[in-house]
UniProtKB/TrEMBL annotation:
CDD domains in alphabetical order: TM_PBP2
InterPro entries: MetI-like (IPR000515)
The protein, known as: Carbohydrate ABC transporter permease
Membrane topology qualifier: Multi-pass membrane protein
Top-rank lineage group of the source organism: Bacteria
Residue ranges constituting the ABC transmembrane type-1 domain according to the UniProt record: 71-260
Cellular compartment(s): Cell membrane
Principal location listed in the UniProt entry: membrane
Species for this entry: Paenibacillus brevis
Amino acid sequence: MQSTSVTKIAVTCLMLFFGVLMIVPFLWMISTSFKTPAEVFQFPISWIPADFNWEHHIKVWTGPNSFTHYYLNSLKISLISVTGAVLLSSLAAYGFSRIEFKGRNAMFMVYLSMMMVPPQVLFVPKFIMFDWAGIYNTHLALILPGMFTIFGVFMMRQFFLSVPHEISEAAFIDGAGHFRIFFQLILPLAKPALATLAIIDFSWHWNDYENALVFLIDQDLYTVPLGLQNFILENTVDYNGMMAAATAGIIPMILVFLIGQNYIIQGVSSSAVKG
């Protein structure tokens, strides 16, 4: 019993060490964004600036390339993509988990195997397709593909498999169809999984750099990752400004995680019940 307690304490201390190790760069980034240029390379490091300098944050939001425009673009793309991804993934997962049809499991395995295809391989076919469809250099080039996520279908299917079949069978006996069962019975039970998928998918779209770099040309369409890169290229020696811009870019992700961390734990644990 005593050895078990010692082991738990040791594991907790180890996790605490790695947790602190991972959060230190973020703390340094935020601290540096409020420092003066002379304090950036000061050693030993001064974690709390002598005087909080808001100049760099003001420059990020009010400069020639204001982050406000990048934020609005990223919010537009992320929110629309997440809404579509949650709905379409849930519908596909319901079909793979609750509707019996020939070759269902084989089809799902083939669908799942597409996760092994590197996304970079699809850049050229997607470029040709988007150019043909007339959506290249528009936000639709990021929104439409973003509505389809293999991981989302897999995750929601795992959750739906954990829901007792007796619930849907009883609804069938009462005359309910698949759509009524899906929207009125299954989805209300899947709130933790839906919230988890939405949070994870939002983070993917918010941090998506490669697709935005390839399919967006006009600066008016830039998202936060492209805006951050553009800011860094224009301010190569303004380290305080870079840290302020990076802080601005990461704030939404921190807020989303803090708000939805309980849903993430519930959703992941529920989705892992059945394989």
